[in-house]
Structure formats: C-alpha cells, structure tokens
Amino acid sequence: MTETTTDRRDGEALRGRIAAELARTRARTAALTDAVDDEDLMRQHSPLMSPLVWDLAHVGNQEELWLVRDVGGRAPVRHDIDDLYDAFKQPRRDRPALPLLPPTEARAYVATVRDKVFDLLDRVAFTDRPLVVDGFAFGMIVQHEQQHDETMLATHQLRAGAAVLDAPPPPEPRARGGGEVLVPAGEFTMGTDTDPWALDNERPAHRVRLPAYVIDAAPVTNGAYAAFIADGGYDESRWWSPAGWAHRQEAGLTAPMHWRRDGDGWAYRRFGRWAPVRADEPVVHVCFHEAEAYAAWAGKRLPTEAEWEKAARWDPATGRSRRYPWGDEDPTAAHANLGQRHLWPAPVGAYPAGASPLGVHQLIGDVWEWTSTSFRGHPGFTAFPYREYSEVFFGDDYRVLRGGSFGTDRSACRGTFRNWDYPIRRQIFSGFRCARDATPEEAHA
Ligand code: AVJ
Ligand code: FE
C-alpha cells in the first residue's frame, strides 16, 4: 500500500499526540517519586504495595518490552532485570527483598528506555499491524504508567510521616446531586470496537438488554455512610454476606480505612494530614463487602457492571452509547475530578457538566465504584496483546470497579474502562453508589 499525504499528516498528528501523552505521564511519575528521599523510595510502606522504586523501574521495563523490543525491534536495554520487574514472578510482599535498582539507577534506566522510545516513535509506521494500528502499543504503555502512578499515589496514602503531596481542594457543589434516576428497560451497547486505545477487556462491543432499574444520582456520601455506622451497621451480620461478615470479623473492620473518631464525628487521614470527614463527599477506602453491607442496610443493592455502564453511556435521545456520560469529548477539569488534580473526592454536585443525559452525576472520577459483577471477558473476548493484562484475572475472585477516582488519569478512564480487585481490598480509592430494581409502577411510567 502506498502512503498518501493524508496518511502522512495523520501519522504526524498521532506521533505528536503520543509524544505529549508520554511526556505528561512521565512528569507525573517523576513528581510521585521525587517527592520522597531514596530511603523512602526503597522502603515498603505496606505489604499490599511495592516499594515506589519497584513501580518506577517496572514501568520502564514494560515500556522496554513492548515498545523498544517488540514495536521497535531494538536490542534489549537491560535483559538481566526482566525477572525482577515481572509482576507475576515477584509477589508484592517479596519485592523489598529483591536486589532492585537503587533510585539513581532506576531513574537512569527509565530515561534510557524513554530516549529510545522517542527515537523509534520518530520512525515508526502506523501500519495495520494490530500492535501499532492507531498507536495502540504506545497508548497501552501510557495507560500502564498512569495505572502505576495511581498505585504509587495509593502507596503515598499509606505512608506514615509528614505530608509531601499538595493540591488545591476540589470544587464546591454547583448543583443538587442527590436522589435516584430511573433507567428505562431496553438494550444498549456495552463495550467498544472503535475506541483505538481501549484495552482487550473493554472489547468487543455487544448488545445487552436490561430491565428497568433505579440508580443513585451520586456516589454514597460520608454522611450517609456514617449513618450506617451509627446505626450499628458493622455489628449486625444480617447486612453482610457470609464472606463479608467473616472478613469484617477477622479484619476487625469498624469504619472506612484511614478514618478515626473525632469528638462525636470522624476524621480522615489524607496523604499525611488529618481532616474532618465532610458529609457531602463520596466515601472512599471501603471494600466491596462494606459497600454491599451498606447497600443492604439502605434497602438497595450494588449496581451490576452493565447497569453502571448503561447509566454512564446510554444516550436516550439517540440510543447510542457515548464514550463518557457527557458525550464523546475527552474529560476536562469541568467534567470530572481526575488526574490527581485534587487529593480527595469532590462533594456531590461539584460536576454538573459531567452528568449523564438522565442526570446521573460523578460517574467518572472521584472514586472507583464497586459493582456486583465478577471480572470476566465480554462475549467474544480475545486476549490482546498478552493474557496477563486481563485474562488471568477472570473469575469470581475479583469484582469490577468502574469510573476512575481522583487519582486516575484521563488516559486510563472512560465509560468502557474496567478495573478489578479482590472484594476485601480498600487501600485503593474505592467507593460505590447503590441501585435497585424499578417497581412495576416506575417501570411502566
Ligand atoms: C487494572 C489496576 C488491576 O494494577 O494490577 C498494572 C493494572 N496491570 N500493571 C493492576 C496493571 C499491569 C492493574 N489493575
Ligand atoms: Fe504493571
């Protein structure tokens, strides 16, 4: 096939976009790792997390494997360290004992890899080869680094000691955000075939039919969650599943992670600073079991993943599924609390410009939202480009979370994006909203 002028111009535009995304992402990685000293970078702040210096070199190693070696066909930079930074060969709890690259070497390594990537980006032809079509592998690597940046942010949240991260507080409410929204029965398109940087687990697009249901217009707030605690929610097994109650007992759960009593209220430790818990902010740092127990106490349930996605994407005017609740345009600061622009969730009603056509708010950003669905492939799923990104996690061990948090970058967040974790995990920026079946009267309204 001969290259036309249009192909060449499109290729140049794509190259420019990729270079900008790589640079923007690396600036975030640098900020997260330059914020603490070398000893702190090497230390394990929680058995659930890697030392920050492991995440840093792992990001470079994945970039080397996929872009330098595979896309670029270049010689390895550091073949000898592949095993150290293979997440499957090294469980998180063992990572601090490994002979990791010290901070200076890790920084030099990721910089060397990045130089080679910029060099090959100048020459790469965006052919039909699946790995490079529309710059997919570059997009995958940007998203991978951003996902580790969010993980590093969660590590910062677990760090003991003085605060090292700063950001302005999120915006104040500009609209009423509470209540519930009825989503009428019918089919919608779930997943995508067309989003060029969508990962394998978001594909393919397929039709899903749902009965009418009702979903909360906003995530569950601290105020509502504190009422559940005050009502003895953590002491009554009837609100919890058997597995949830066993975990609540064994782990001694009494409140969200990072909360402590403060007079007759609560305080919440955010990146090294204690602040009063604010009633109108979405609750964060709850596990799936806590979310499920709250929903039962409230007379509701968690949404299924399909219910979450229909609420986030379905446009009643056209019947189309959009990329985001507000339309197809990329998120801006007016749409959603993303990208570590703020260091905690925004109060309900802070993002009216980000609401869906039916009036569901804050689906994107603020907190990852637990759904009741186990992580599986969409019908017709094909692993690409490697089974270890998604497929090896399919099954009932993991629940799906949707929508991204204040710590999620826009490149790793959209109406189809899927996250997953164990139902006991809460060091991530996880919250939830509730749903329920529509009553017959509502369904026929
Ligand atoms: C999609 C967030 C569950 O961190 O385990 C990073 C992302 N995959 N490196 C994870 C990921 C490989 C993944 N999550
Ligand atoms: Fe990774």
From TrEMBL:
Query: What NCBIfam families does the entry give?
Result: egtB_TIGR03440
Catalytic function, reaction form: gamma-L-glutamyl-L-cysteine + hercynine + O2 = gamma-L-glutamyl-hercynylcysteine S-oxide + H2O
- Enzyme nomenclature, EC number: 1.14.99.50
Which metal ions or organic cofactors does this protein require, according to UniProt?
Fe(2+)
- Taxon lineage: Bacteria, Bacillati, Actinomycetota, Actinomycetes, Micromonosporales
Q: What is this protein called?
A: Hercynine oxygenase
Origin species:
Micromonospora thermarum
Spans traversing the lipid bilayer:
none
Domain of life from the UniProt record: Bacteria
- The UniProt record lists the Sulfatase-modifying factor enzyme-like domain at 179-436
Q: Which pathway does this polypeptide act in? A: Amino-acid biosynthesis; ergothioneine biosynthesis
UniProt: Fe cation binding residues: H58, H144, H148
According to the entry, every stretch annotated as the DinB-like domain falls at 22-152
The cross-references to Gene3D superfamilies, in alphabetical order and at most eight, read: dinb family like domain, paralog of FGE (formylglycine-generating enzyme)
What is the protein's known function? Catalyzes the oxidative sulfurization of hercynine (N-alpha,N-alpha,N-alpha-trimethyl-L-histidine) into hercynyl-gamma-L-glutamyl-L-cysteine sulfoxide, a step in the biosynthesis pathway of ergothioneine.
UniProt cross-references to InterPro entries, sorted A to Z: CTDL_fold (IPR016187), DinB-like (IPR024775), DinB/YfiT-like (IPR034660), EgtB (IPR017806), EgtB_Actinobacteria (IPR032890), Sulfatase_Mod_Factor_Kinase (IPR051043), SUMF_dom (IPR005532), SUMF_sf (IPR042095)
* UniProt entry keywords in alphabetical sequence: Iron, Metal-binding, Monooxygenase, Oxidoreductase
Task: Give binding positions for gamma-L-glutamyl-L-cysteine.
Answer: R92, R93, D94, R95, D421, R425
Q: Which PANTHER family match?
A: HERCYNINE OXYGENASE, SULFATASE MODIFYING FACTOR 1, 2
Q: Which Pfam families match?
A: DinB_2, FGE-sulfatase
- Report the sequence similarity comment from the record: Belongs to the EgtB family.
